[in-house]
Design brief:
This protein is mainly alpha-helical and 508 residues long. The protein folds into two domains: 389 residues, Sodium/glucose cotransporter; 70 residues, no CATH class. Helix content is 75%, strand content 0%. It is globular and about 70 Å long.
């Protein structure tokens, strides 16, 4: 794709603005709380934008648009049901986490069970971040840059990793959320712009609807191979959703940095409303790519890049390049910061060196961020051996997410559940899920997750009956934190649920 001088200037200006503003906003960070949780001073609008910007990356513009190209609007259930999940997180999980004053999600497991459960989850999350999350974002980002702009795949991977690493190493979470604000706005505006151009290319909304060919249905048969309605509404989809939005450090870290419970809850509900809009700027263009260029696109993951290459006018390529590049950076910087937080707080400080200064913790966090950049860039090219990026991400997370969700939810409800129940569930989840994939390869992996979750809950119940705690564990209380909730949060949460139901009715 040919670049004009305006394209190059706009792209360079965007990158300079992101790095400059992020570094300026994150200056004067002296403590580990400053570096890892932005001093617990984040406001709702920063939290909301950061949640969406961290979540949406080229794995969506490449992977989810690709699934829209093949499967249709049914893939939007990941987004719309996530909006409801966010309401659950805001009302049920966040108050517990903020009340305990934790830095990381694995830290909660130590207070609820013991230090071994915390260490086990930390190890699982570290491995998953490097081998799944970081590598997938780097690969999908480089794939988009290669398809649209002709940049070599490996060069693209290192270019993305180095730029994101620069400000994340220095600035920590505060740099991340400010870069997310800039990149989130660019991402949403760029996505809207492409959607408008796509509708124009297909001949308008009426033509789009007429040529949809059944791809606008969100509810598919119960035995569908990927998105059965049973899994979407009452089954397996809730497992990755609760894990991702409520128990995943890379997402929850900005909510743990909220200045108050009310600010955190408002930020999450704001993100939930934005989540409802995402399919319109990602899945719809994937469907339009099928309508316009179905005979020319060899692989589904190429749908969005191919569409952009065809419809984007000269002079706007640098702007879209910036939006896509920003989408990658906003997810990558969050993952890097969260991975270094888990290593520093849950492993280094807890296991290797318990007596350590704040300055040393920040230094270790910065070193590990740089290490994760290098490891992620080296691993990312290996993903070429797998199929769809989006399916790769969802399936691999399935090995650990049912066990983690079971350990948290069961432990919150059943106060006398012992550590052996949580540890066993997290370990047992791996072979059970793997066995489901092996024995039922044609069954939707969301069903595999749900089956695994039910088995693990059964195990935890049996372990609790066999060896219950004599007394429930006492959770710590952060006395200096504002834990006052707002009644309006429940009203806005109900509005999110109602809006989601309306969308499903419209696109039944």
């Amino acid at each position: 794709m040919h670049f004009t001088t305006i394209d190059i200037i706009s792209f360079v200006a965007f990158i300079v603005a992101v790095i400059g503003i992020s570094l300026y906003a994150s200056r004067k960070q002296d403590t580990s709380e400053d570096y890892f949780l932005a001093g617990r001073k984040l406001t709702w609008w920063l939290i909301g934008f950061s949640l969406i910007a961290s979540n949406i990356s080229t794995e969506h513009f490449v992977g989810m648009a690709g699934r829209g190209y093949e499967l249709g609007l049914a893939i939007a259930s990941y987004e719309w049901m996530a909006a409801i999940t966010l309401v659950f997180v805001a009302l049920a999980l966040l108050p517990k986490f903020l009340k305990s004053g934790i830095y990381t999600i694995p830290e909660y497991l130590e207070y609820r069970y013991n230090s071994k459960t915390r260490t086990l989850m930390a190890i699982f999350m570290m491995a998953a971040y490097v081998l799944v999350a970081l590598a997938s974002v780097l690969y999908s980002g480089a794939l988009a840059l290669n398809a649209i702009f002709g940049i070599d795949l490996v060069i693209g991977i290192w270019l993305i990793g180095i730029i994101a690493g620069i400000y994340t190493v220095y600035g920590g979470l505060k740099a991340v959320v400010w870069s997310d604000l800039i990149q989130g706005v660019a991402l949403l505006l760029g996505g809207v712009f492409v959607t408008i151009l796509a509708f124009k290319a297909v001949g308008g909304v009426d033509a789009f609807l007429a040529q949809s060919g059944g791809k606008l249905h969100t509810v598919l048969p119960w035995n569908h191979g990927e998105m059965p309605w049973v899994a979407v509404f009452i089954g397996g989809l809730w497992i990755p959703n609760i894990f991702y939005w409520g128990l995943n450090q890379f997402i929850t870290q900005r909510t743990l940095g909220a200045k108050s419970l009310a600010e955190g809850q408002k930020g999450i509900i704001f993100a939930a409303f934005l989540k409802l809009l995402i399919p319109f700027i990602i899945v719809f263009p994937g469907i339009i790519a099928f309508q316009l260029y179905g005979s020319q696109i060899a692989q589904a993951d190429q749908a969005y890049p191919f569409l952009i290459q065809k419809i984007l006018p000269i002079g706007f390529r640098g702007i879209m390049f910036s939006a896509l590049f920003g989408a990658v950076l906003s997810s990558l910087d969050s993952m890097l910061n969260s991975a270094s937080t888990i290593f520093t707080i849950d492993l280094y400080k807890k296991v290797f060196k318990k007596e350590v200064s704040n300055r040393r913790l920040v230094t270790i966090g910065r070193i590990m961020t740089a290490v994760f950049v290098v490891v992620g860039c080296l691993w990312a090219p290996i993903i070429t051996k797998f199929g769809s990026v989006y399916q790769y991400i969802q399936k691999i997370w399935g090995f650990i997410s049912p066990g983690i969700v079971a350990a948290f939810l069961f432990g919150m409800v059943v106060k006398k559940a012992p550590p052996m129940a949580a540890i066993g569930a997290m370990i047992l989840g791996i072979p059970v899920y793997g066995l489901c994939l092996y024995l039922m390869p044609d069954v939707a992996f969301l069903h595999h997750m749900f089956i695994t979750f039910i088995v693990l809950i059964g195990y935890m119940a049996a372990a609790t009956v066999y060896k219950p705690l004599s007394e429930p564990r006492q959770m710590p209380v952060n006395e200096n934190f504002d834990l006052q909730s707002l009644p309006s949060v429940k009203i806005w949460g109900a509005a999110v649920i109602a809006a989601t139901a309306v969308l499903y009715i419209i696109f039944w």
